[in-house]
Amino acid sequence: MDLKHKLFGFSGRMRRLDYWLLSIGANISIGIVDAVQTLAFNGGDLAALQSDGNMVSSAISVALNILNLWISVAIMVKRCHDRDKRGWWAAFFLLVPIVGWIWGFIELGFLDGTQGRNRFGASPKGIGGSDEEDLAKVFA
User: Fold this and answer.
1) Is-contact 10 87, C-beta < 8 A?
2) Staple 128 to which of 4, 52, 113, 116, CB 3.0 to 4.6 Å?
3) Is the dihedral of CA 61, 63, 67, 72 positive or negative?
4) Chain centroid to CA 31: how far?
5) Transmembrane region positions (predicted)?
6) C-alpha to C-alpha distance for 7 and 76, rounded to whole angstroms
């Protein structure tokens, strides 16, 4: 799975290490870009962010937040798939305050995925063999 699919795709499975690295990396990257654009458009004046004349900076911030949300949901969906859960669980983890957040943090960040294949594909750890090997065993 290439980086583009890991960040923007909703199919497949993702192991915990990739989940943590991509989650933290994406948030840091978007935070840095947001800080740089804030400094570039406002000269570091945070009070200027509140003014109505700062539409370009506000539009960039909104776009970055939408991008961050998309990446976060895509990563969470693939982690749900690794736990053999439908991707809709990501909505529960994001939208249910406190209980959903804690449950999602534990479920996605700390619990191991399904060993071997599940309904969402092969193990991202390489456990269980490829599709061709599985088919060869069935028809052998």
Assistant:
1) yes
2) 116
3) positive
4) 15
5) 20-43, 55-76, 88-106
6) 10
pLDDT tens for each residue of 105-134: 999 999 999 999 999 999 998 876 555 655
Inter-residue contact 42 to 54 (CB < 8 Å): yes
Structure tokens at 91: 């909505």
3-class SS string, the chain: CCHHHHHHCCCCCCCHHHHHHHHHHHHHHHHHHHHHHHHHHHCCCHHHHHCCCCHHHHHHHHHHHHHHHHHHHHHHHHHHHHCCCCCCHHHHHHHCCCHHHHHHHHHHHCCCCCCCCECCECCCCCCCCCHHHHHHHHCC
Are 128 and 117 within 8 A, CB to CB? yes
User: What pTM did the predictor assign?
Assistant: 0.81
Residue type, 59: A
